[in-house]
Predict the structure.
Amino acid sequence: MKFDFKGITGEEISFKLNRVKLNPEDKLDIKPQFSRQVRKVNANEKLNFVALSVKIESTEKEPKPFDINVTLVGVFEVSDVRNENEERKFVIEATKLLYPYLRACVTNLTASAYIAPLNLPVISGPIFPEDKDTFAFAVNSNDTLN
């Protein structure tokens, strides 16, 4: 299996300031929620889109000073995929490639909003639990683009 990174685009990049009063002694727990979608193009089996998202939302139970929603989409040309295990490896590698861009986008977004820049953690291993050594990955056949 081999893949070629063709480019990246920001599908959604949003920031909303919440008027939440936090006590200085309270520890702020951001708890970013990550998600990923993998899609193939029907007209070109080699073309794959991997969307990597992070969401931080304030709730009544866990107030946060801001809401962030960032989705970046990487475009990849993939060839010589012989089985599901190789397809899984591609998705894991594509996620690793996109994550630093997602981190930079969140940091730049918060800095552009004139608040202390938020730095997501550096992750050297898999981001998603299903990417760990155990095989628990499948691409939904309904996730295709025309």
Observations:
- Residues 84-112 form the longest helix (29 residues).
- The first strand starts at residue 2 and ends at 17.
- The mean pLDDT is 88.
